[in-house]
Amino acid sequence: MTKPQTRPRATPETGACVTVSQNGPYIVTGRVPLAKQTIVTDAEGGSQAWAQGDDYPPQEKYALCRCGHSKKKPFCDGTHAKIGFDGTETASLISSRRRSSTAPP
């Protein structure tokens, strides 16, 4: 089992909670509804809208793939451990406005 990377927070209304596990899946609890959605594209391949797909049966707890290599997507099958997935967040802490003002011409 992987250690939580972030502190989980449940919503008071539903008890729903999403925890990001260290180098592993998103752990979702609280019978959060889950459905497949697909991006609808135009003739040039540009994104236009989301198309609602099938609903997954509700569960009290499930793990969603975060590494992108699960054979059971959207669910985790443990592949992250086999491939050495590094789930470290890499987004800059500098605001986008500040980054753009320091970008070379």
- Straight-line N-to-C gap: 47 Å
User: What is the count of DSSP helices, taking H or I runs of 4+ residues?
Assistant: 2
Placed side by side, the strands forming the largest sheet appear as 1-2-5
Query: Low-confidence runs (pLDDT<50, min 5 residues)?
Result: 1-6
Order of helices and strands, N to C?
EEEEEHH
Q: How much of the sequence is in beta strands? A: 25-35%
Going by helix content, strand content and strand pairing, the class is mainly beta
Give the overall shape.
Answer: extended
Helix content: 10-25%
Task: Please tell me how large the radius of gyration is.
Answer: 18 Å
Largest sheet: 3 strands, antiparallel
Q: Kindly give the count of domains.
A: 1
Average of pLDDT: 84
Strand tally, please? 5
Main attributes of the structure:
mainly beta, about 100 residues, 5 strands, 3-stranded antiparallel β-sheet, extended
